[in-house]
Amino acid sequence: MRVLFTGGSGKAGKYVVAYLAAAGHRVLNVDRVPLRHPGVADLIADITDSGQMFNAMSAYAGDDEMEDGKGHRPFDAVVHFAAIPALKIAPDNETYRVNVMGTYNVIEAAVKMGIRKIIVASSETTYGVCFSDGVVDPKVLPLEEDYPIDPMDSYGMSKKVNEATAQSFQRRSGADIYALRIGNVIEPHEYATVFPPLKDNPGLRRRITFSYIDARDLGQIVDLCLKKDGLGWQVFNACNDTNSVPQENGELLARFFPNVPLSRPVGPHESLLSNRKIREVLGFREQHDWRKYVG
After folding, report:
1. Greatest distance between any 2 Cα atoms in the chain
2. Domains of the chain
3. pLDDT along the chain (295 residues), means of 10
């Protein structure tokens, strides 16, 4: 597929772009800084500028496309990762503005250009635990996609609004639009520093309900979304199979979430940010369990 990817130069995006390119997709990276990945063209553009997004949707995906004389052509799919990626990076109002208006501009341009597959990066922060003020419990565990999301911070709010925007455009267009509630992204080199302290202090991961997503496994998830047609509007948690800490759920729940009910039994190490839907609907099979990289 010819894929327009926004935010491919970011922490998660660079791994997903590499995965998609290796899987045979033709990817154009749209970002404010170039990625310079072999075989992937870069287009410098700003998602908060609607005109730039409309223009990008018909851009060449590489120099070779100028040779066939077919002119500009729409993409087969859009993957939208570009955003201010977390709280406290920019002022709250700027985080909200960039993420909400940027996502509106990208989806509007894609839909009006006739693109029928759109994947947008949402966030686990929509569940209202990660960036909440004070120590906040979820209403129920495990966290699954039908949960009534209720963030109180500007970043989580922006992602909740983006899901509503995406759902509205899906109703209007009938295109496939899938939102990924992406967990805490771990790059390969981070296993050596992030994970060892969790043996003695799992509470460091309480706000993300102990979950994680390997950046390379996230690439697989996006590729599976590109290949899965006909689902209309969907939300998927994007995380690995198990918690990121060695303690079992019995201990974690009793210690950190003693007042939170379970909607169903969970396995000893099953991720409390559930990825059951991506396994059952998309066929996701994780390749990068953290235990492969941490003694």
Report:
1. 65
2. 2-292 (3.40.50.720)
3. 98 98 98 97 98 96 91 93 96 98 98 98 98 97 98 98 98 98 98 97 98 98 98 98 98 98 98 98 98 93
